[in-house]
Amino acid sequence: xxxxxxxxxxxxxxxxxxxxxxxxxxxxxxxxxxxxxxxxxxxxxxxxxxxxxxxxxxxxxxxxxxxxxxxxxxxxxxxxxxxxxxxxxxxxxxxxxxxxxxxxxxxxxxxxxxxxxxxxxxxxxxxxxxxxxxxxxxxxxxxxxxxxxxxxxxxxxxxxxxxxxxxxxxxxxxxxxxxxxxxxxxxxxxxxxxxxxxxxxxxxxxxxxxxxxxxxxxxxxxxxxxxxxxxxxxxxxxxxxxxxxxxxxxxxxxxxxxxxxxxxxxxxxxxxxxxxxxxxx
Length: 281
Known about the structure:
Radius of gyration: 22 Å
Oligomer: single chain
Number of helices: 7
Helix content: 10-25%
Strand content: 25-35%
């Protein structure tokens, strides 16, 4: 289902945070498009009119009709910084997932993080920060899911020390310029107690040797034909792990490393087998 509120330039400029901003004025109508992905001939489009509805009224009205208890995700894209963040917060309330692409304004991006704090699931473009450097204050937050990427370039500028700061449960970094020795060090530090909340870590990699990654780490090689299911917090479907390298922390928690690939990239995955992550087959 797709909802369109502003099809004409009926917004006005007013005084908002950090100067003049586009205000979310009362929409006169909403275009409701209901699509059937299996049969587009059944797609329907209708225009609903409520001249006295505010944006907040519209959302509540549509949520009640379609039995949507809350907004699941909010996307901030290019030019979203033209809007007043206070208006957005008031109209939309909070959500579970936030996607912050390159908004074009670093101050606005920071205001998103402040206004909607705490954020459970966050996907963010590093171009929202000066020199694309993620601040430690973001890395140490207790996200359930954190995904970091950078448009226009393959490598996300995150160091080993920054990786050790991340306090999220499920971590995805688009691509890391990291060596086999540094990954080996990360694993050994995890064994000693670093990243205690981490359940899953994934990143793309280049020029990494599996033997060098596992050097000096007591481990067991699991056959590729042995599949296990891993349920990370907040995800609807479990991960399928085929084979891998099993090892343990000093506290006796088991972890598995899996080296994956597709037609375009190589992936490093580390799974930490907390009791709630184990799916019995």
